[in-house]
Amino acid sequence: MGSGARRSEVIEEGYEKKGVGTKEAERRARATENKVSGGSKKH
Questions:
Q1: Is the pTM of this model over 0.85?
Q2: Which of 27, 24, 29, 23 is nearest to 9 (CA)?
Q3: How far is CA 32 from the centre of its chain?
């Protein structure tokens, strides 16, 4: 698990604390992480 996955978990927990449902929090966390990281990793 890379740092991006960990960051995604932290983002997800933040949404859940705000009262967002688990599935929606997971979706938003992935979307946020993609935005921050620039999407797919290019080598």
A1: no
A2: 29
A3: 5
